[in-house]
Every structure is written in structure tokens, then in C-alpha cells.
Amino acid sequence: MFMEVEKVKVTDHYLKRSKERMNLCAKKAERVANLAYWRGYRAKDCKKACDIRFLESKSFPEIYHEAVAYNGYCFIIDFESRLVLTVYPLPEYFGKKYIQSRKAMLFSY
Questions:
Q1: Percent of residues, the chain, with pLDDT higher than 90
Q2: Taking the CB of residue 76, how many other CB atoms lie within 10 A of it?
Q3: Cβ distance 47 to 90 under 8 Å?
Q4: DSSP SS3 for 89
Q5: Which of 23, 26, 21 is nearest to 9 (CA)?
Q6: In this structure, which long-range contacts are made by residues 59-67, counting pairs with CB atoms below 8 Å and at least 24 apart in sequence?
Q7: Counting beta carbons within 10 angstroms of the beta carbon of residue 35, is it exposed (0 to 12), middle (13 to 18) or buried (19 or more)?
Q8: What is the spatial distance between Cα 54 and Cα 39, in angstroms, rounded to a whole number?
Q9: Strand 9-10 to strand 83-89: parallel, antiparallel, or no bridges (unpaired)?
């Protein structure tokens, strides 16, 4: 009685970056990309303004590319073709309380 979900496709660039930045093999990187697509936070799901601004700055709605935050990383996904393009770490202040995030933004140099 399990629901079958469609898997996402990944680019060679994503596989290379996931190995470099997340230290994942190709099979595990595809699994993480699939989880990020289905469970990740988009800009409309975030509550804090600085988190929303960060994800919107990385998104390109005119070409259907959207930034998704999942497990400490930002995934750039083409939602029209379900293609994961690249991944990079989220900033320190993402998802933190205002006071902690303010300190991280002030003292990160």
C-alpha cells in the first residue's frame, strides 16, 4: 500500500558538487536530491523574512528554477522538468532565531 512517487533527475554538475560539498556517492546524492524535491522548504514555506529573501534571491521564476532548503543545503531545482541542477551550503543564519542570525550576519567576515 505504498504510494509510488516519481524520482527526480540529476545533472552531472550536481553529482560533482554533491561529492565535493556533501561528500556523497552518486547513489546517495540522487536519494538526497529526491528527498529535497519532495520535503524541502521553498520560499513560500519559510516564516522569516531573511530566509524568504535568501531563497528568492537564488530562484529564477522566469525559467522555472527554484531554490529549496533541505538538511543544511540549498538545492537549485528546475521544477518544470524535475531536474536538480546544483547544491551549495546554506548560510549560518538560515533558520536561526533573529538574535542569533543578527550576530552571525554582523560578525561573519
A1: 64
A2: 21
A3: no
A4: strand
A5: 26
A6: 66/42, 67/42, 67/43
A7: middle
A8: 18
A9: parallel
- Distance (Å, rounded) from C-alpha 52 to C-alpha 30? 26
Residue type at 63 in one-letter notation:
I
pLDDT tens column, 50-92: 889 999 999 988 888 999 999 999 999 998 899 999 999 998 8
- Separation CA 58–CA 18 (nearest Å): 18
Q: Which amino acid is at 97?
A: K
- Predicted pLDDT of residue 99: 57
Going by pLDDT thresholds of 50, 70 and 90, the confidence category of residue 29 is very high
One-letter identity of residue 30: E
Alpha-carbon distance of 40 to 43, in angstroms, equals: 10
